[in-house]
Amino acid sequence: MTPHEIDHAAPAETPDQRQSLVERYRLQTWFLGIIAFSMILFLLVQARFILISLVIAIILFSLTADAISAFSRLRIGSWKITNWLASMAAFTAIAVSLLALSALVISQVNTVVTTTVAYTDQAVTAIARLAAWFSPEAEAMVATSIRSIEVSTYISTLAGQASNLLSATTLVILFVGFLFAERLWFNTKLENLLHDRAKAARVGRIIHSIVRRVNHYLLVKTGISAATAVAVYVLMEFFGLEFAGPMAVLTFVLNYIPSVGSIIATILLGLVALIQVNEPATALVVFVIAGMIQFVLGSVLDPMLMGKALRVSSFGIIISLAFWGAVWGVPGMFLAVPIMVAAMIVCSHIPAARPVAVLLSREGLPEIEEAGTVPEIEPVRAAAE
Predict the structure, then answer these.
(1) Residues 316, 269: Cα–Cα separation, whole Å
(2) DSSP letters spanning 108-157
(3) Of 7, 120, 210, 249, which one is least surrounded by beta carbons within 10 A?
């Protein structure tokens, strides 16, 4: 009996029964969605060290992909830079840069750890002095509360995180190496996986759109963060404050966290100035100047350079920071915006998930890939030349 005959043979369903089946189907879908989300969240938390390293490796690999393609088309006389040579040069540059940056961060953390204990009493006195503006009782209460905090525990935790940085850097370098090794065969694998050249080209355009916007975001953020770090270093040197180097590095790193990072960096700079100077007015001047630097570079120059590359909702950025911060901690806050941009672009190409992309976008108009954004997928022989 054919399915059509079975439908005719089955007794007709009443509208109430049909509505009950629809409601049951929706309920089952919601339950399955909750279970799937819970499993994914569990895996994200349990494998966060490997996943964070993998995401960072993918971002670093995407940053150099266009540069490798450009270099591979250059010719010096009769000699042509091969794709393999350009990939090896890019991988070497990434490995050296990551190791140098890790060594710089670890050295600055060690400097802070070795000198923090000497400034503990001064920090307590300086913070309590701020509370004295309210009442003498508040000063005594704040001083007692701060002294009850075990600073040595937090210092040990900070040193432990710094030591883990070298392990994470090594893992990221390994992932980047494997990505470069698979780069030449990616287009062929994508076409064979989808069994359709047109679909493979469309997926390639989506990936190219994600890479282009994330790369632009990271390049602008790096430039703004570097300029802010240099300004903070000059400011602290001008006022004769210690920790100019560590504070500049900390400002550079924290500025990658949208909105929240610049606020934390400015507050920390104000506290460092308050600890080292005797006059609160001088510390207030340093705090105000640092805030002006952050505002001009972060709130004026940053949006101008970013343009339409980061067309995401400000509220969505805060939600993404909160979610990935809860799942992956501080590294998740650094990766929140690139992950959000990628999710918005992917959802904009899936009809069922397009409402999510509309909510994540700034104007409610998520980007759709344009025809001719990237060329058609080339044969692997051309990529391997």
Answers:
(1) 28
(2) HHHHHHHHHGGGHHHHHHHHHHHHTTT-HHHHHHHHHHHHTS-HHHHHHH
(3) 7
Instruction: Quickly list DSSP for 304-370.
Output: HHHTTS--B-HHHHHHHHHHHHHHH-HHHHHHHHHHHHHHHHHHHTSGGGHHHHHHHBSSS----PP
CA 150 centroid distance within chain: 31
What one-character DSSP code corresponds to residue 184? T
CB 286 within 8 A of CB 241: yes
pLDDT digits (tens, 9 = 90+) for 63-109: 887 777 767 666 666 677 777 777 788 888 888 888 888 887 777 76
CB-CB contact of 62 with 54 (8 Å): no
Nearest Cα to Cα of residue 356 among 378, 340, 380, 372:
340
Q: How far apart are CA 319 and CA 317, in angstroms?
A: 5
Can you tell me which residue has the tokens 């397009």?
354
Q: Which residues contact 244 (CB under 8 A, 6 or more apart)?
A: 232, 233, 236, 237
SS3 call for 195: coil
With tokens 């710089």, the residue in question is 104
How many C-beta neighbours within 10 Å does residue 14 have? Answer: 9
d(CA 250, CA 176): 25
Evaluate if pTM is beyond 0.85: no
Q: How far apart are CA 343 and CA 231, in angstroms?
A: 34
Residue type, 323: F
Alpha-carbon separation of residue 343 from 33, 216, 252, 266, 365 (angstroms): 18, 16, 26, 31, 14
| Token couple for 294 | 């952050």
CA atoms within a 13 Å half-sphere pointing along the CA-CB vector of 187: 19
Residue predicted with more confidence, 240 or 154: 240
| Strand (E) or helix (H) holding 242 | none
